[in-house]
Amino acid sequence: MLYGVNNAELEGITFGKGESPLKEAKNIQLKDSIFTWKYPLWYDDNVKVENTTFETMSRSGIWYTKNILIKNSALQAPKLFRRASHIKLDNVHFVDAEETMWTCNDIKITNSQINGDHFGKDSKNIETVKFFV
């Protein structure tokens, strides 16, 4: 869809069926949006996400991504993070964090709720503040 987009501000978008809508994007800001299908943010760098929903089928959503901040968002999909680094999450709700945050590095989670099994497998440098499981 927007493969390889660079230096973009995206707002109020519903990403429907279709895999990898923002693969290999750089320097993007995403606000008030919805991901409904698989692999939304793969191999991205410098991503800011706010007030966005990752619906159940947006599974395997954020893999191999570096420097991502997600605030005030609903993360409903399992297997959401893999092999990602420099992750900041603030006020997010993981509805189904099963097999999420695997083999990730440098993670800061604040004011968030996480529900699901096998969260954080093989991840390193995880800092949590006001974290609810």
Please supply descriptive tags for the structure shown above.
133 residues, mainly beta, ten-stranded parallel sheet, three-stranded parallel sheet, 13 strands, 52% strand
Short description:
The chain has strands at 6-11, 14-15, 26-31, 34-35, 41-42, 45-50, 53-54, 62-63, 66-75, 81-82, 85-94, 105-114, 124-132. The protein is mainly β.
**Which word captures the global form?**
globular
> Helical amount among residues, as a percent range?
under 10%
The strand count comes to 13
Main pleated sheet: 10 strands, parallel
What's the tally of helices? 0
Radius of gyration: 13 Å
Counting helices, strands and paired strands, the structural category is mainly beta
* Integer tally of domains: 1
Mean pLDDT: 95
Fraction of residues in β-strands: over 45%
Poorly predicted tracts of residues: none
Order of helices and strands: EEEEEEEEEEEEE
Distance between the termini: 35 Å
